[in-house]
């Protein structure tokens, strides 16, 4: 889910208009809480390319969030003002959830918990930020002398397709159960049946609640070698309008190819440029003898040829980290940079821009669980036994700093 909200609102005028109702500032949404479809049966949303049922579920959730914000702000505002303010508020909620909720589960240590909250609230903490209205404590945007952009290096370390499974374990939410009881499986559905148009059709049958609860109770895959989703090795990609392209894609191979074609530095040089220590032999990278043997077969003794994505997947993880140390350095820089460079989180983070109720909405939202609580309180109350929606929902409420169960699963 992009932090600018473009997957909900769109990135050009045509799509921005297509997703709107032009009534009370709201976005189009079906009566069942899922995204509407157009006359061709394609979903109406900001980004309809290469979707899968889980992603469409989250798109629908934040359309609901936008529409609820419109209801809250409705008293004195017309359609256009309602839409613009609700878009600002919802996009800020997404950015905040990403910063202090999702990232904290990805890097589950006490230090990172404090660091990401400092990123959002500043060194003086939540009370200061809520009072004076500057994310991270900054009064105006800071570009550090370079215009803001998402760099190729950031795109490269954000390749996390191993997190997706080959099958979704659908849960029987009609069975008698609660947060301290396991929910029985209904069946396993191949991910190939949950992508594109077929995925949208199946989601309509599954429904929002069953899809969300099923995802909440299934751990993600680990960011490791030999753990790439099989269905992504023979993938039908789509154009921007959601139309299938004629040629299949091996996404794992394509990700390596993209980095090479875009001149992203290979693993060792990448680390040097980030002032990290490069490896001199395969044993510096990993203790896994099977991995060392395979790396030698592919790259010989030349560690300088090691591709970035392969190196990050093979790299020994820091305790509590789902991602590699190499990727973490980029995350650390960009997480701060994206907030610092945005006037809507610095000079314009105020009641005049967001409205008083809108700013309060953002300030009082701390997690994805808060968003789910607003729209599906019976779902979180009955099935979520976790402080974060990004942890496995039936795990213990406060585990002591482990690698989250969310990521710890056997290789596919």
Q: How does the major sheet shape up?
A: 2 strands, antiparallel
Element pattern in H and E: HHHHHHHEEHHEEHHHHHHHHH
* Arithmetic mean pLDDT: 88
Number of strands: 4
- Determine the CATH topology of the largest domain: Myeloperoxidase, subunit C
Low-confidence stretches: 396-412
Structural class: mainly alpha
User: Going by CATH, what is the homologous superfamily of the largest domain?
Assistant: Haem peroxidase domain superfamily, animal type
Number of helices: 18
Q: Could you tell me the strand content as a percent range? A: 5-15%
Helix fraction bin: 40-55%
Distance between the termini: 24 Å
- Please tell me what the overall shape is: globular
Rg is 22 Å
- CATH 2nd-level architecture of the largest domain: Orthogonal Bundle
How many discrete domains?
A: 2
Keywords: Dioxygenase, Heme, Iron, Metal-binding, Oxidoreductase, Plant defense
InterPro entries: Haem_peroxidase_animal, Haem_peroxidase_sf, Haem_peroxidase_sf_animal, Oxylipin_biosynth_metab
GO molecular function: heme binding; metal ion binding; oxidoreductase activity, acting on single donors with incorporation of molecular oxygen, incorporation of two atoms of oxygen; peroxidase activity
Binding site for heme b: 161
């Amino acid at each position: 889910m992009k932090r600018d909200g473009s997957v909900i609102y769109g990135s050009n005028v045509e799509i921005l208009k297509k997703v709107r109702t032009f009534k009370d500032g709201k976005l189009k949404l079906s009566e069942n809480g899922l995204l509407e479809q157009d006359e061709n049966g394609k979903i109406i949303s900001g980004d309809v390319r290469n979707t899968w049922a889980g992603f469409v579920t989250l798109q629908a959730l934040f359309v609901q969030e936008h529409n609820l914000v419109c209801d809250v702000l409705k008293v004195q505002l017309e359609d256009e003002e309602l839409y613009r303010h609700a878009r600002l508020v919802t996009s800020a909620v997404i950015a905040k959830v990403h910063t202090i909720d999702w990232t904290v589960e990805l890097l589950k240590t006490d230090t990172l918990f404090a660091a990401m909250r400092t990123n959002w609230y500043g060194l003086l903490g939540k009370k200061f930020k809520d009072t004076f209205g500057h994310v991270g404590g900054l009064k105006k945007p800071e570009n550090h002398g370079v215009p803001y952009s998402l760099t190729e290096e950031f795109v490269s370390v954000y390749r996390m397709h191993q997190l997706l499974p080959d099958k979704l374990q659908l849960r029987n939410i009609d069975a008698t159960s609660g947060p301290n009881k396991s929910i029985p499986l209904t069946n396993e559905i191949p991910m190939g049946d949950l992508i594109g148009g077929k995925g949208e059709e199946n989601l309509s049958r599954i429904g929002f609640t069953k899809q969300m609860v099923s995802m909440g109770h299934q751990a993600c895959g680990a960011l490791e070698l030999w753990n790439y989703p099989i269905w992504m090795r023979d993938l039908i990609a789509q154009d921007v309008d959601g139309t299938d392209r004629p040629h299949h894609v091996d996404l794992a191979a394509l990700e390596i190819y993209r980095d090479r074609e875009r001149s992203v530095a290979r693993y060792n040089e990448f680390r040097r440029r980030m002032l990290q220590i490069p490896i001199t032999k395969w044993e510096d990278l990993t203790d896994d003898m099977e991995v060392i043997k395979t790396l030698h077969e592919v790259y010989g003794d030349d560690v300088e040829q090691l591709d970035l994505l392969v190196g990050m997947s093979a790299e020994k993880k820091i305790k509590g980290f789902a991602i590699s140390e190499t990727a973490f350095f980029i995350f650390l820089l960009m997480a701060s940079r994206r907030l610092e460079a945005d006037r809507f989180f610095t000079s314009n983070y105020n009641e005049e821009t967001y409205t008083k109720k809108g700013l309060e909405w953002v300030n009082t939202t701390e997690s994805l669980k808060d968003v789910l609580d607003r729209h599906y309180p019976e779902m979180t109350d009955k099935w979520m036994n976790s402080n974060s929606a990004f942890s496995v929902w039936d795990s213990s409420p406060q585990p002591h700093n482990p690698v989250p169960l969310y990521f710890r699963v056997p290789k596919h």
